Amino acid sequence: MALAKPKRASGFYLKDNNWYCTTGLPSDLTVEVDGLFFHLHKFPLMSRCGKIANILDKSQDTHEESFKIKLPEFPGGPDTFLVVVKFCYGVRVELSSKNIVAVYCAADYLKMTEEFGEDNLLAKSDTFLHKNILRNWKDCILSLQCSDPVIRRAEKLKVVSKCLNAIAMMACTDPSLFGWPMMMYGSLQSPGGSILWNGINTGARIRSAESDWWFEDISYLSVPLFEKLVRTMKERGMRPENLAGAIMYYSRKYLPGLGRWQGGQGGKSRTFTSFSMTSAAVDQKVLLESIEKLLPEKKGKTFCRFLLGLLRVSMILGVSNKCQESLERRIGMQLDLATLDTLLIPTYSDSDTLYNTDCVERIVEHFLSSGKNVTLFSPSSFDLETSPSSGPLRRVSRLIDNYIAEIASDVNLKPEKLRNLAEALPDSSRSLHDGLYRAVDIYFKV
Predict the structure, then answer these.
(1) What is the tally of structural domains in the chain?
(2) Fewest CB atoms within 10 Å of the CB: 22, 86, 148, 376?
(3) Does the keyword Secreted apply (predicted)?
(4) What contacts 235, CB < 8 A, 6 or more positions away?
């Protein structure tokens, strides 16, 4: 049986749970990180790491030739510590969008400041972040996605907020104004919008410069990071319709049940050959409760359909009462834009009735009590499909009459439920009562 060869990495090799230096000099310092042991030497680490220098200075009284140090909760774990060790030994280390946040946090954890060596790792990390990451859309997204394991320290160091601000600024800006090279739709693009191949302008143009080009990219972020990014974009003046579009895209990606009620309005499928990312692990209930808080106070037909889809999914997932009530309130504020198919919300409890009439009754109450004039999304960039031929109250009355006629065929529907819905709207909302007569006729026949 052949023995497994030790794993080597630029002057170091791994054997079992131990990393060794290939210098041949006996180790006088062992550092434990997450169950892995690094057999190292005092001087290279003391000359760069303030934290380790302080620990060793306090241990000088023991007169031991070899010291053991344990670094609990080390940012980035053993892989990041190996990068730090290689840096301390003068081995060339490669910073990238995938490791920069962890390395930055590790350098801060170990106090690798200029006090312990010129051009130390903390300064190098900060320079790399500002020159290489914050100026590049793709690298900014990748860095954020890889920051989850060290997110608390990264937030404390303002690394996360810097990345969020950079992404928000680029998303709020016309992409044709970006400095190149940048990655869009898997291809390099010059400031004029031409496709680049190996840095050469081919003269070809990208197919479109839509305002939603960034939706897919940010959908790879975790829920907390996505929430922070949307808030940052809002602070930077992102248009409400673009924010709503990004929220809808993200929701449809991680809440598959939404697709059943969206009438083919799902997000566009795009492939980014430049991005080697995997979708975020998402708790659907947490996602929905977070998404609800981000929704803009705007109205539009597509947006109303989306809200009703969210409401259905919220009932399945069992979200908080506060979240469900807020969704019902939002829908009520634009009930005149709803359609019958989206309003037919099934009963997900043990009730004998087919449809949740109590929910619709509450939505109607919100519509009538809504004193706030909710403005429409910009018609040039968001689907409205409003009908100016009649007022909101008349449109809602026709919708509810049609709704009552649809649910009237349910043999388990109690008379008082039908009556409550019929009387929910004032008499002035109906110029004719033909719709109600038809609904009552269906109910009696059933």
Answers:
(1) 1
(2) 22
(3) no
(4) 168
Is residue 277 very low, low, confident or very high in pLDDT (cuts 50, 70, 90)?
A: low
Q: 397 pLDDT exceeds 50?
A: yes
C-alpha torsion 216→219→225→229, nearest 10? 40
DSSP 20-87: EETT-SPP-EEEEETTEEEEE-HHHHHTT-HHHHHHHHHTGGG--SSEEEE-TT-TTHHHHHHHHHHH
Dihedral (CA of 86, 87, 92, 96) sign: positive
Is the confidence at residue 192, as pLDDT, over 60? no
Coil, strand, or helix at residue 385?
A: coil
Residues sharing a CB contact under 8 Å with residue 239, sequence separation 6 or more, in sequence order: 211, 378, 381
In a domain, 411, yes or no: no
Secondary-structure breakdown of the chain: helix, strand, coil percentages, each rounded to the nearest 5 = 50, 10, 40
Could you read off the pLDDT of 355-392 as tens digits, one per residue?
999 999 999 999 998 866 778 886 545 554 444 446 88
The C-alpha atoms of residue 440 and residue 401 are separated, in whole angstroms, by 10
pTM listed for this prediction: 0.83
Greater model confidence, 262 or 362: 362
**Residues forming beta bridges with residue 13, ordered by sequence position:** 8, 20
Amino acid residing at 308: L
Q: Is the pLDDT of residue 71 over 70?
A: yes
> What whole-number distance in Å separates Cα of residue 276 and Cα of residue 108?
28
Q: Is residue 273 part of a domain?
A: no
Q: Are 286 and 223 in contact (CB under 8 A)?
A: yes
Q: 244 phi and psi, to 5 degrees?
A: -60, -40
Q: Can you tell me which residue has the tokens 């290939």?
A: 22
Task: Return the beta strands (E) in 312-362 as ranges.
Answer: none
198-223 average pLDDT score: 66
Residue burial 352-362, b: 16+ Cβ < 10 Å; e: rest = ebbbbbbbbeb
> Which residues fall within 8 angstroms of residue 234, CB to CB, at 6 or more apart?
243
Domain hosting residue 25, numbered range = 8-126
Share of the chain above pLDDT 90, in %: 61
Give the CATH number of the domain where residue 83 resides.
3.30.710.10
Q: How far apart are CA 74 and CA 33, in angstroms?
A: 7
Average pLDDT, the chain: 83
What is the rounded CA–CA span in Å between residue 12 and residue 19? 7
Q: Which residues does residue 183 pair with via DSSP β-bridges, in sequence order? A: 188
